Amino acid sequence: MDLQFSAEERAFQQDVREFLASELTPELKRAVSLTPTVFVEKDIADEWHARLNRRGWLAPLWPRQYGGAEWTPVQQFIYESEAARAGAPTTIPMGVRMVAPVIIRFGNEAQKAYYLPRILSGEDTWCQGYSEPGSGSDLASLKTRAEPDGEDYRVTGTKLWTTHAHYANRIFCLVRTSSEGRPQAGISFLLIDMDSPGISVTPIRSLSGDHEVNQVFFDSVRVPQANRVGDEGQGWTCAKFLLEHERGGVFSHRLMAMVQELRRLMVDTPEGESALIEDPRWRERLAALEVRVLSLEVTEMRVLSRLRAGDPPGAESSMLKIEWSELQQALTELAMDIAGPYAQFFEPGRPLYALAGHTLGDERLARIPPDYLNTRAATIFAGTNEIQRNIIARMVLGA
Amino acid sequence: MDFSLTEEQRLLQESVQRFVQDSYSFEQRRAIMAQPDGFSRDTWAQFAEMGWLALPFDEADGGLGGGPVDTLVMLEALGEGLVVEPLMATVLLAGRALACGGDDAQKAEWLTPLLEGRLLAALAAHERRGRHAPGWVETRAARVGEHWRLDGEKSAVLHGDCADLVLVSARTAGSPEEPKGISLFAVPADSDGLSRQRWQTIDGLSACELTLAAVKLPPEALVGEQDAGLGLIEAVLDEAAAAQCAEAVGAMVALTRITADYLRQRKQFGQPLAAFQVLQHRLADMFMDTERSRSLAVMAALQARAGDVVTRQRAVSAAKVQAGRSGRFVGQQAVQLHGGIGISDELSVGHYFKRLTALDARLGSADWHLARFAAQPASG
Questions:
Q1: Between B3, B321, B370, which is nearest A301 by CB?
Q2: Shared-domain flag, residues B216 and B243
């Protein structure tokens, strides 16, 4: 066991630092620090997407032949750690990290040749059509159906909690192509143009008033069967592959950046003649969370180290999801407590980084309440933490 | 960056696991604890023969040249067996203190027999008013001509009751809370003026309250530099605490496994307890708390001998905080999930619970380490 990077890895770390020093503008950094939503605003995301793409780093995990960087798990870890420390935006995952791996793994050559370059260039923006009003955790019960109609399908139904559907020009969907046999066996994976006739998008405002998610309606939408990825009935396999892909990852450095930010906030928050940071009770609350974040960091390294050895991530990947989401919530909760009376402050203007002047003087205060409210979603999306605990328990029980 | 074990470490792991399986079943342990010392001298000789007592020492000192990661591997496996032999006190506390602070003559006199299993030793670094802090020292060491004279009381000295040699921290200058002015002395247990009040720990070990009344020591009893002993003591305590975190992980791994087995077997309302989601989730939380603790125990081992003191202290304190919190949760939930039988002393579950409870009280509690951690923010 050791924590040292190899000479090549240190050289890569240097490359990342230089890239961030030249490409991460103060405007981008400020926008990130004032983002109260799950993803950064579209304009910020697009700009960062383009900068990463120019460097060849947009798709770290894709094979080189499709324009990916083919990073090792350690390179990924290094990039994520440096990017988090520097306060860089994260990329919007629906294209690069979600649909693309499925296309690469299960798609045909024509689909790869058409879609992958358009994801890199930013020409296509994707959203994910999974959940439905009646199908949340029990995703396999989904009802949106695709019925054959000549060379096409006719898709009818509705998808819910569709992040960025209002920006996307494409959606990847799980649809029911059969009601025979097990519910999982009748599901197929379709790529659909958002400008197809019969699609409509209704915004859903989150608790903070932000518009990030939507409901998407499909009314007999014509989709070529050629837009199906994999065989008919293989959709569940694609979805499981994607979920596993989504679960592995490096989150601890973003959380550590939050810890540092909260420490600065405590330094800047007066109480009587001193500041919150002078009070051991506040310091220890933060320290308790910092300990957990450090633990997550090592768990991530252990999982990466196993991935590198070619072993599957195992139940730890469910654990990582539970850890980062619950820690993120705990940190936003502590931020609320630090804000004190301003934990009730509501700033209706959006985006926060575009507002001129802040009512309370300290613009950081405007982000705290909506961040807290929006972060409640973290333990619900990408498989609720209850589902993740089911998965872990199955593994521990050997069932 | 690499978290895999070397071939040697895997072999060590296997041999300790095999020992626990073959020689340290719950029944065998009970018989061992019934012996006069509360542990088995034969087992201790076996440890020496296997080289486990020599593991964390330099080859120049007669050791095997192992580091904290080797100790982690050994202690995690021993943790599953709930061993009661004085490995922590003799090897990881007193032995490491002699290795880090002793001169050649001191090592020849005490460390060599210690590694061979012929000498038991303990470290008396804490006092009642200092609680978990080794920096609070009221015990005084005064020069009397060539000699030293020690007066004072040390508290909760793990395995101090059966030690042949006790390393005692005493103040050679300054007031009780000052970091400077602390020195370490090697005190033979049969010294005139040394008395011990033995007590048992809840997890089957023993400890003592140590009283020093005009104990006279030769000049060569001073281990390490005069007045600058705290740095040595803290380094030794940190490395031992890192090892103890690995021991806690071993106990948690065993408890989670035992509890999972029980949930599969025990039936109520016509179905196995494992079928109830509320219990499944509790088990998942036990697993996660164990893994949290494991991650930080690994980090603590990797930093246990770090040159930078803040780096070392932060890593060890983080691990000790998590081991304390996780140990409490996993232990309490294992008892809870076993229901009534969980509070019986006849089952191993309760003994793991007691071991985890005691580990938090030794080498600094979770609260004490959290305060130390909070006082040293990360740079950058």
A1: B3
A2: no
- The answer to whether A67 touches A116, Cβ cutoff 8 Å, is yes
Q: Which residues contact B145 (CB under 8 A, 6 or more apart)?
A: none
Q: At which of B119, B138, B154 does a domain end? A: B119
Give the minimum alpha-carbon distance from A204 to chain B in angstroms, rounded to a whole number: 32
Cα(B297)–Cα(B289) distance, rounded to whole angstroms?
12
Upper half-sphere CA count for residue A239 (Cβ side, 13 Å)? 24
Structure tokens at B84: 């009661």
DSSP per-residue letters across A58-124? S-TTS-GGGT-----HHHHHHHHHHHHHHTPPPPPHIIIIIIHHHHHHH--HHHHHHHHHHHHHTS-
For the domain A126-234, what is the CATH code?
Answer: 2.40.110.10
Active-site residue, A70 included: no
Q: Is beta strand A199-205 parallel, antiparallel or unpaired with respect to A187-193?
A: unpaired
Same domain, B201 and B248: no
Q: Do A286 and B298 touch (CB under 8 A)?
A: no
- Chain A contacts of B293, Cβ < 8 Å? 295
Is B380 part of a structural domain of the chain? no
A342 touches chain B (CB under 8 A): no
pLDDT at A399 over 70: no
Greatest extent of chain A over all pairs of C-alpha atoms, in Å? 77
CATH fold, domain A248-397, is Butyryl-CoA Dehydrogenase, subunit A; domain 3 (1.20.140)
Q: Total structural domains in chain B?
A: 3
Q: Would an 8 Å CB–CB cutoff place B2 in contact with chain A?
A: yes
How much is the pLDDT for B378?
A: 75
Domain with B11 in it: what CATH number? 1.10.540.10
**B67 lies in the same domain as B202:** no
B380 pLDDT exceeds 60?
no
Subunit contact A396:B256, Cβ cutoff 8 A:
yes
Name the helix (H) or strand (E) containing B339: none
| B352: in domain | yes
The verdict on residue B129 lying in a domain is yes
Are residues B196 and B101 part of one domain? no
Q: What are phi and psi of B346, to 5 degrees?
A: -80, -15
B275 in reach of chain A (CB within 8 A): no
Domain match, B98 and B213 both: no
Q: Which of residues 163-192 of A touch B (CB under 8 A)?
A: none
And the tokens for A329?
């919530």
Q: Is A36 helix (H, G, I), strand (E, B) or coil?
A: coil
CA distance B11 to chain A (A): 15
Q: One of A232, A246, A261, A333 is an active-site residue; which one?
A: A246
Chain B hits for A323, Cβ within 8 Å: 288, 292
Q: Which of B85, B119, B153 is the last residue of a domain?
A: B119
Q: Which CATH architecture has domain A7-91?
A: Orthogonal Bundle (1.10)
Distance from CA of A316 to the nearest CA of B (A): 8
pLDDT digits (tens, 9 = 90+) for B102-123: 999 999 999 999 999 999 999 9
**CA–CA separation, B370 and B322 (whole Å):** 9
A390–B contact, CB cutoff 8 A: yes
User: Is B235 in the same domain as B369?
Assistant: yes
ipTM greater than cut 0.90: yes
* CATH classification of the domain holding B137: 2.40.110.10
Residue A333 pLDDT > 80:
yes
A296 contact B CB<8A: yes
**B316 lies in the same domain as B353:** yes
Distance of residue B224 Cα from the nearest chain A Cα, in angstroms: 30
As given in the structure block, the two tokens for residue B158 are 């793990």
Average pLDDT over residues A84-109: 96
Structural domain range at position B359:
231-374
Is B196 inside any structural domain? Answer: yes
